[in-house]
Amino acid sequence: MSAVIDQAPTVSEPLRTGRRPAAAVLALARFEARELLRQPTVLVVFLLYAGYTYWQLLFPADAMDRYPVLHNADRATQPGTLALALVVLLAANITAQRSRRQGTDQHFDILVMERWRRTLAHALSVVPLAALTALIVAVEFAWTALKPGAVGHGSVAELAVGPLVTLAAGILGVLAARVIPSVLGGAVVVALGGIASLIASLVTETDAVHWLDWLNPVVSENGVDPIPSALLGRPAGWHVLYLAGLTALLLCVTLLLSGGRTRMVKAGTAVALAATVGGVAGQSPSHDAALTAARTKASHAPVTAQSCVTHHRSTYCSFPEWTAWRDDWAQVVDRVQGLAGGSTRGARLTIRQRIPVIVNLTDDSAITPLRTPGEITAGTRWGGNRVPEFAVGVASVLVAGDEEAASKMCDARVVTVMWLALAAQDDPMKALRDVRIDNSVSGAAGALSITDPVLMSTEQTRIVRELLKRPRYSVTARMKTHWAELTSPKTSLTQVAELLGVPAGKAAAEDKKSQGEEGAC
To answer: With pLDDT > 90 as the criterion, what percentage of the chain qualifies?
Structure first.
C-alpha cells in the first residue's frame, strides 16, 4: 500500500534537538558559501578585481607609484571594494531566496534547524568572501609597503574597511531577502542606497557636513598631496567601530525578523546598536582647533616638526616620515648644481619639505614660493614627473636666487633654468614633455615646479629643445664660460642664443616685443 503526499505537513514549531546546532549551522554555511562562489558573477568579479590589482602592482601606471606614501596607500585600497560589495549583496540576496524560488520553503519548516538558524547560515556564508577581500587588500598593501621607496606607515583600521564593507553588504542582501521576498529585493536595496548616497553627496557639496559624509561606508578623501599622518584627522578607528557595529546590527535584525528572538540575539542586538551609535558619535565631530592649529603650523613653520641632514654642500630637511627620500633629493640637486657655473656651483642650499595650507583632504592647494635665498621646496610626492619638477625648482633658485624671484622670472634666464633642470635628467626630451603643463615640446607653455610654474615662450622652448638635442658636455662648457651673462636679467634672448651657439631664429622679434610691451612675458 502506498500513499502520495501532495503537501508537506505543517507544524506549529520546528522539532528541537540538543545535538550541536552550531555544527549544523556551520555545515550549512559552508554549503551556502560554495553556492555563492559558484555564481558566475561573483567568481568573475573577484577574479577581475584580483587580476586588475595584480596588474597594477606589477606594471604601475606612474613612476610615482614606486615611491608610495603608506598612510595614503592604505585608504587607496577602499574604493575598489565597493564593486565587490555590490556583487556580494546581490549574490547573497539571490542565494537566500533560492528555497522560495524553488518552492521548498514548506519542506524546510519541518526540519530540525529553525528558520533563523538557516538565515544565520546564509549570513555566515558571506564570511569567506569578506576574507577573500581581506586577502586581496593585504597583498596589495604589503606589496606596496615592500617597495624600496615606500615611506610612512599604514593603518589597520583603514585596511579593515574594505572587508567589513563586503561583509556588511552580504548580510544586507540576506536581510533584503527576508524583508522583500522577491528577486528584485536586492536591486531595490541597491537603488535606495544609490539615491541616499546621491542625496548625501549633494548635501556635502553645498555644505560640508562632516558627520553625514562619514556615514558612507567608504570615505577616501583624495585630492590633496600626502601630508604627515598626524595631520590627517581621519577618525578611522571610530569608522571601523561604526562599520563593525552596523554589520552586527544588520545580522541581529535579520535573525530577529526570521524568528530568532533568543536571549543571545537580543543581547547581541543591544551591543551592536551601542557599538554603531558609539562609532557614529566618535566619527561625527569636525576637526578640532588643535588639529587646525597643527596643520597651520606645519604649513607656515615646518622647521618645528622636521629634522635635517647634510649631504655634501647642502642641508635637507623633511618631516619624519619622509627621511628615506633625502638621498634621492640630493642626487638631483648635485646633478643640477654640477652643470651650473660661477659661485653657484659651490653654493650651500637648504632643501626643505613643505605642505600647502590644509583645510580638508579633498581640496588641493598650491605651495607659495619662499623668499629665503638658497632655500628650495621639496614636496611630499616623488618619482615620475615630480623629479623634473623638483629639478626646475632647484635650477630656478640657482639662477634667480630665491623662489619668489623665480616665480616672476620671464626673461631669457628661463632658457638657462630649463636646460639646467632637464639636462640633468636621464631622458631630457621626455622630461621636457612631462614637466610642461600641456605635455608638449613646442610652443608656449608653463613648466611645472613644486611651487609656481616657469613660463616658457615659443622661442624659449625652441632654444631649450635645440640645446637638449646636443651633447651635454658641449653645452655645459658654454654654460660655465658665460654663466654671468646667462643668469643676468639684462641679457636678451638673442644674446643667450648666440652665447649657447643656437640659431637666433625669432628671438630678436621676441626681444623687441618684450621691450615694447610692458608685462608681455
So the answer is: 63
**Quick one: cell of 244?**
563593525
**For the stretch 458-487, what's the b/e string if a residue is b when 16 or more beta carbons lie within 10 angstroms of its beta carbon?**
ebbbbbbbbbbeeeeeebbebbeebbeebb
- Please report where in the chains the cell 546581490 appears, as a residue: 90
Amino acid at the residue 304? T
C-alpha 92/C-alpha 33 separation (Å) is 9
Main-chain phi, psi angles of 111, to 5 degrees? -75, 165
CA angle, 447 then 69 then 418, to 5°: 15
Alpha helix (H) ranges present in 353-402?
A: 386-400
What gap in Å lies between CA 449 and CA 455, rounded to an integer? 11
pLDDT digits (tens, 9 = 90+) for 167-221: 999 999 999 888 887 766 666 777 777 676 666 666 555 455 778 889 999 998 8
- H-only helix segments in 258-353: 263-283, 289-300, 326-339
Cell of 425: 635628467
Selection from 169, 175, 140, 168 nearest residue 68 by Cα: 140
Q: Provide the grid cell at 70.
A: 603608506
Q: What is the largest CA-CA distance in the chain?
A: 117
Query: Within 13 Å of residue 251, how many CA atoms lie on the same side as its CB?
Result: 28
Beta-carbon contacts of residue 518 (< 8 Å; ≥ 6 apart): none
> What b-and-e string marks burial along 488-507, b requiring 16 or more CB atoms within 10 Å of the CB?
beebbbbbbbebbebebbeb
Whether residue 486 contacts residue 479, with contact meaning beta carbons closer than 8 Å, is answered with yes
Candidates 317, 320, 355; CA nearest to 333 is 317
Angstrom distances, CA of residue 412 to CA of 184, 392, 432, 486: 69, 15, 17, 8
Amino acid letter, 227: I
List all residues 6 or more positions away from 274 whose beta carbon is below 8 Å from its beta carbon.
245
Nearest C-alpha neighbor of 421 from the set 398, 451, 405: 398
Side chain identity at 146, as an amino acid letter? L
Rounded CA-CA distance 266/248 in Å is: 12
Residue type (1 letter), 142: A
3-state secondary structure of 465: helix
Secondary structure element (H or E) that encloses residue 497, with its range: helix 493-499
Cα-trace Rg, the chain: 31
Q: How far apart are CA 342 and CA 424, in angstroms?
A: 18
d(CA 221, CA 156): 17
Amino acid 520 reads A
Segments of the chain scoring below 70 in pLDDT: 1-19, 99-113, 183-187, 194, 196-208, 507-509, 511-521
